[in-house]
Amino acid sequence: MNQRKIINDPVYGFISISSDLLFDLVEHPYFQRLRRIKQLGLADIVYPGALHTRFHHALGAMHLMGLALRTLQEKGNRVDEVELEAAQAAILLHDLGHGPFSHVLESVLMPGVSHESVTLVMMKELNRQMHGRLEIAIQMFEGTYPREFFHQMISSQLDMDRMDYLNRDSFYTGVVEGSVGADRLIKMLDISNGQLVVEEKGLLSIENFLHSRRLMYWQVYLHKTLLSAQAMLTRILQRARELSENGEELFATPDFSRFLRNTFFLHDFEIYPDLLESFNGLDDNDVWASVKGWTKHSDPVLSILCEMLLNRNLFKINILDSQPGTDMLADLGNQLLEAGLTEEQIPYFLVSSETTNWAYAKEQDPIRVKMKDGRLLDIADASDIPTIEALTKIVRKYYVCWGKNVSLRG
Questions:
Q1: Phi and psi at residue 320, in whole multiples of 5°?
Q2: Distance CA 188, CA 82 (A)
Q3: Is 199 helix (H, G, I), strand (E, B) or coil?
Q4: Considering only CA atoms, which of 253, 247, 151 is closest in space to residue 196?
Q5: In the structure, how many helices (H) and strands (E) does the chain have?
Q6: In 110-266, which residue ranges form alpha helices assigned H by DSSP?
Q7: 195 φ, ψ to 5°?
Q8: Model confidence at 380: pLDDT above 90
């Protein structure tokens, strides 16, 4: 039997791993891989302290889940010990399906396959290895467990995932405005008609939570310098994949090479029994080792892009309120032609895209407030702050980034 384990966490203090099942999950290679995947990908290019990992985040989310469920128990809600363990297991494993640099590479390595889908595949394999001990956790993760509030605590607009990553990302980036009062928010949680709700006295805490999330998106997750770096990494992987598919031998670890040479879809995990192990062999180190190696590659597009990213010589980026016009793109394209690029090379050094910030998706997933008179109101209706309603609007920004000082050799 495993003894109870305690981990010292810089955000919350001591975190307990309170059961044998949770300990076994933390010790498993699937979970240990998260030590080698940074939570914020390339964000340390902007915020040097953002070096924390998905391992940290998953443990923090598990900790908050335990606090929240104990709070619900104290308020007279039935939460069995089996359910408490299952919910903690589900939130502990919720990020297993993230690959290196997460969302940046999802579209390149496994287009159309979400990390949530891969997470579910990995959870089912863990359940097989652990003789069915994760059945309830999987149901909670999928949203098929009869008591819906468990899924809401794992995946909703007020879940333990968001509470931890906002607090943790704020802590490690130093963007203190993004910090949320997780302890107070958790104390305000309750259950009404089987749904997760927040007591009226927690109204200000929710408002702060939504504002913090909006701020963190603009100031950290969608920071323009980070968008530029992500665009460069995406182009690097696209070029590497193109060369690999054309028979070019590229330096890469065996698992990374497999994903560069082949395009896999979700059903391929059933077709190729060893594919899951190959996926679990991918982490940030594979990508960085390849980027370093590819700086010496004979292909000028790949080598220059890798050298620029490695040395933080990033694309120039402009943020726009509307889509870039053809004149702007043509002018930038001409500048790149004058720098020695060919027409075929320009798409790798000129990127236009868009990004959105949606702080509160009211229609899709409302946050319910339990008023003192027993009514359940949407946070936008319960709050007297007009900006809450404004947070329900999707803010869309466009951007163009290009290799302003690129000099192509060869």
A1: -125, 155
A2: 23
A3: strand
A4: 151
A5: 20, 9
A6: 115-129, 135-142, 149-154, 160-173, 182-187, 203-216, 224-245, 254-261
A7: -110, 150
A8: no
Per-residue pLDDT tens for 47-84? 999 999 999 999 999 999 999 999 999 999 999 999 99
Residue 202 to residue 49: CA distance in whole angstroms? 31
φ/ψ (deg, to 5) at 123: -65, -40
∠ CA 174-42-247 to the nearest 5 degrees? 175
Phi and psi at 7, nearest 5°, equal: -115, 135
- Is the distance from CB of 242 to CB of 318 less than 8 angstroms? no
Tokens of 331: 């002018």
- In order, the DSSP letters of 108-141 are HHSTT--HHHHHHHHHHHHHHHTTTTTHHHHHHH
Q: Could you tell me which residues come within 8 angstroms of residue 181 by beta carbon, excluding any fewer than 6 positions away?
A: 205, 208, 209
Question: Whole-model pTM above 0.90?
Answer: yes
∠176-179-182 over CA atoms, to 5°? 155
Q: Are 406 and 349 in contact (CB under 8 A)?
A: yes
Angle at which helices 224-245 and 284-294 pack, to 10 degrees? Answer: 70
228-241 per-residue burial string, b: 16 or more CB within 10 A, e: under 16: bbbbbbbbbbbbbb
